[in-house]
Amino acid sequence: MENPFKFGTIVDGSYFTDRVEEQEKVKQVISSENHLILISPRRFGKTSLVQKVMKSLERPVFQLNLQLVTDTEDFAAHLLKLVLRKYPMERLKHLISHFRFIPTISTNPMTDGIELSFQPSVDSFVLLEDVFILIDKIGERGEKPVVVLDEFQEIKALDKNLDKKMRSILQLHSHVNYVFLGSQESMMEEIFEKKKSPFYHFGYLMKLDKIPYDDFLVFLKKGFCELGEKTEVENVSREILAFTRCHPYYTQQLAFQVWTLWLQKGYMDTLVADASLLLTQVHDMDYERLWATFNRTDKKVLIGLNMNLGSPTSLSFLRNQGIESSSTAFSSLKRLSKLGYVIKNDVYEMDDPFFAQWIMKHR
Ligand SMILES: Nc1ncnc2c1ncn2[C@@H]1O[C@H](COP(=O)(O)OP(=O)(O)OP(=O)(O)O)[C@@H](O)[C@H]1O
Ligand SMILES: [Mg+2]
């Protein structure tokens, strides 16, 4: 028997659940004249969702993770490589007549990969602009391409004026749909929601939520169904979701561990508790190191969140945790959210349930 749960990488097929409405929404937006901006905390399933939709399309898709890109020139090179991989040079020849630079293209027979280099003196924004124009031309002549830029918040770190330049280039193109994904919510909001930002209101903003409880429950029960009795499967699945609060990644991680334990040792009432303790222990050193980086207010806020004391800026929370004022608590929450340790859905909560357990165990 193979473990039916998977975490850490993109999921599809039997590892992927729900997101029916979201898939529909993504399709709808990119079938229109609009661009899509998809935001969520880390590991909620943005890349998996978008990949799933892209696979179902019969349009050219160019997908690039900006975390892998080092600067503007590298960005242009990566993008051009994606295009070259899809279209033979012969077909592109008449489409690249606008190129203000001549790239040197070679193939590596060992890896079957394409190598690209540019003359050193070319302005890197020009390189990027020409590649984007090429993609728009491809759309003009045939199927409209979709360009997916994952971890888009990275453009802030790539080059100082890249956002401005990109916006000025992209706004001219009407034969491409762009999809921007990002996990640093505050940075993505700054890029797409701040009035002063070049990308202000550039497309349809979609926020990805956790997977709904009932859907995740069905998914978990299906994964465990061959291991035990119906009531055992039901209890274990519910216990997992109570612990992970439906966080997509942590739910799959814990379910994976529970499944392994269950298979090894048979059913026990403590399966979920044992598995979660095991996973918390694995990260003991990381959590200890991390904990040491927080200031005193951060620590008080995190502990309070795990004690379910209500809103961290409420009087009772502040009093109980000995925090001077709601503004102190608020700036701590902002800091912790920016770093991804705290997420806000209906309420503030810790992102990582294992870290939350570690904190409570050590208090
Ligand atoms: N639809 C889904 N059904 C089940 N599990 C999912 C689903 N989407 C995501 N997951 C779980 O979450 C993990 C992370 O998914 P993915 O990498 O797509 O998220 P992400 O938001 O792109 O993450 P990151 O912020 O790291 O880029 C997956 O490995 C899987 O365990
Ligand atoms: Mg991703």
UniProtKB/TrEMBL annotation:
GO molecular function: ATP binding
Keyword Nucleotide-binding: yes
Protein name: ATP-binding protein
InterPro entries the UniProt entry points to: ATPase_dom (IPR011579), P-loop_NTPase (IPR027417)
Organism name: Bacteroides intestinalis
Gene3D superfamilies: P-loop containing nucleotide triphosphate hydrolases
ATPase domain span: 16-243
UniProt KW Kinase keyword: no
Tree of life domain: Bacteria
Chain segments annotated as transmembrane: none
Database matches in Pfam families: ATPase_2
Sorted UniProt keywords: ATP-binding, Nucleotide-binding
